[in-house]
Design goal:
single chain; alpha+beta; four-stranded antiparallel sheet; two-stranded antiparallel sheet; 2 helices; 8 strands; flat
């Protein structure tokens, strides 16, 4: 098969050039679809899912059966085995969660959490006696550092805490 020259001066909307290939091809025949055949009704499928927690990272055990009576028989006959399987899955889920837990940040900042429609600090970045309920963000520059309130509205923000020479933070 040959492709048109992209650097040719002809417009792509012009009539196509005459084929330079001298071989003859068989005329195209229309595609036909086979006649529709009667289908046998698929069996009733039943799925039962057991989720190992409320988060997206929780494990999921799925059982499938052809019908509701088959699922009931499966649960009745294999109940003890399923109990053991769920217990093992829970242990594996716990191990996997611990293994893949996010590491603490090297800069010492604490992870964030979502509360009341806002992202807030999980732990206190400020001094123990700090009364800021919005959470504080550490800003460090070459010759100063301060903890600023993270309230959305400027009128709601608490007074910034400035780093002292001894490393503690105080309001000015």
């Amino acid at each position: 098969m040959s492709y048109p020259d992209p650097f040719d001066d002809r417009s792509p909307w012009d009539e196509p050039p005459a084929p330079t290939d001298t071989t003859t091809t068989a005329p195209e025949t229309p595609m036909t679809t086979p006649a529709a055949t009667a289908t046998v009704a698929a069996p009733e499928n039943v799925t039962l899912s057991f989720k190992g927690g409320s988060g997206y990272d929780a494990s999921l055990l799925v059982l499938r059966a052809g019908s509701v009576p088959e699922m009931a028989a499966l649960l009745e006959n294999e109940g003890a085995s399923l109990k053991g399987l769920l217990e093992r899955a829970a242990k594996i889920q716990t191990f996997n969660s611990e293994l893949n837990a996010p590491a603490a940040k090297a800069d010492g900042s604490t992870p964030k959490r979502f509360e009341g429609g806002r992202v807030v600090n999980k732990g206190s970045d400020g001094p123990a006696d700090d009364d800021c309920s919005h959470g504080r963000k550490l800003v460090e520059k070459a010759n100063w550092a301060a903890l600023f309130c993270q309230a959305r509205e400027k009128s709601d923000q608490c007074e910034p805490l400035w780093r002292q020479k001894d490393g503690s933070y105080k309001a000015k």
